[in-house]
């Protein structure tokens, strides 16, 4: 028979599990802080990405920008960017319904315009390009809703958020620690 030494010390197993989870989260956050800081270690590279991102956004509806960034961040499992962009979208007036449903936008199409749906489909195809490329029908749908300049900016934005997601994941950025401010 095994004795629960935690319980004999006056702490329940649940409290011990919580403490262990907190310790694990702290260790993860501390490990993340020991990773490379791209902005400090390669400032020219970092500034180039910032410039690419700023140029990509030009002329695009800010709500669309955030939807694209949120969807790509979902697909890339980037909690750091997802947290940042959902907060940015809220500050810009985006509804909670649309934020919660963007991950399943196909099942909730009525929350998004046809133009937004085309951008989200393109975001998914480009983000998951290794899974089958960018299908002609997805590209054609986007091209039907955006002129060439807008489409180029949407595509550039998708490329930049995918880059940012990879930077955040590779360098161990922790959700809730938005370093832009």
Topology:
Layout: H1 5-8, H2 13-33, H3 38-41, H4 43-57, H5 62-75, H6 79-91, H7 96-101, H8 114-127, H9 136-145, H10 148-170
Helix pairs in contact: 4-10, 5-6, 5-8, 5-10, 8-9, 8-10
Could you explain how this protein is built, in words?
The protein has 10 helices and no strands. The chain is globular, with a radius of gyration of 20 Å.
Task: Using brief descriptors, characterize the structure shown.
181 residues, globular
Pattern of helices and strands: HHHHHHHHHH
What is the overall silhouette?
globular
How helix-rich are the residues, as a percent range?
55-70%
**DSSP, total strands:** 0
Secondary-structure-derived class = mainly alpha
End-to-end C-alpha gap: 55 Å
H/I helix tally: 10
pLDDT averaged over residues: 87
Q: What is the oligomeric state here?
A: single chain
Stretches with pLDDT under 50, minimum 5 residues: 1-12
Our estimate of the beta-strand percent is under 5%
Short description, anyone?
The chain is mostly helical. It has 10 helices and no strands.
